[in-house]
Write a structure and sequence with these properties.
Layout: E1 12-14, E2 20-25, E3 38-43, E4 53-58, H1 68-81, E5 87-91, H2 96-108, H3 116-123, H4 132-140
Parallel strand pairs: 2-5, 3-4, 3-5
Antiparallel strand pairs: 1-2
Helix pairs in contact: 1-2, 2-3, 2-4
Protein name: Protein-tyrosine phosphatase
Organism: Arthrobacter oryzae
InterPro entries: Prot-tyrosine_phosphatase-like, PTP_cat, Tyr_Pase_dom
């Protein structure tokens, strides 16, 4: 049975395909409602353990992922799992790294790279993808290839 987020829940990004992914900040309390089934955590140090399956992507605050290929693989895994599972993507505040990852996931879902940041800003948080290098990372991200 398909277990995805309700579009009206705080932080939920609905992609053009209908998949939904929740973005959030780990600094804040866990939102009320159902728990994630998979979490992708974007932090410079190992995140705290959670009750659900998760993946850690090494990504220091205000920077880019330490390993771009690992990032691509992690984004693809989150996107694939979001078809039938409750997936969350989170960093410390849920803005820069989370928004950057969500924009890349939107590209995997068919949003053109040049429109992914504005798509995520409209659908998720207006201030997301904080730095010029995060915006460039998204603009250069491709659904396929290195």
């Amino acid at each position: 049975m398909k277990q995805t987020w309700e579009p009206s829940q705080d932080g939920v990004l609905v992609l053009p395909s209908g998949r939904s992914i929740r973005g959030r900040g780990l600094h804040y309390p866990l939102p009320a409602g159902p728990l994630p089934e998979f979490g992708l955590y974007l932090l410079g140090k190992r995140p705290a353990r959670v009750e659900w399956e998760s993946r850690w992507l090494v990504w220091p605050d205000l920077r880019l992922p330490a390993d771009p290929q690992d990032a691509r693989d992690a984004f693809r895994e989150a996107w694939l799992r979001a078809e039938s599972e409750r997936v969350e993507v989170a960093c410390w505040r849920g803005i820069g790294r989370t928004g950057t990852a969500l924009a890349c996931i939107a590209i995997l879902d068919g949003v053109p790279p040049g429109k992914a940041v504005s798509y995520v800003r409209r659908q998720y948080r207006p201030w997301t993808v904080e730095t010029p290098w995060q915006r460039r990372f998204v603009a250069r991200f491709r659904a396929e290839g290195p």
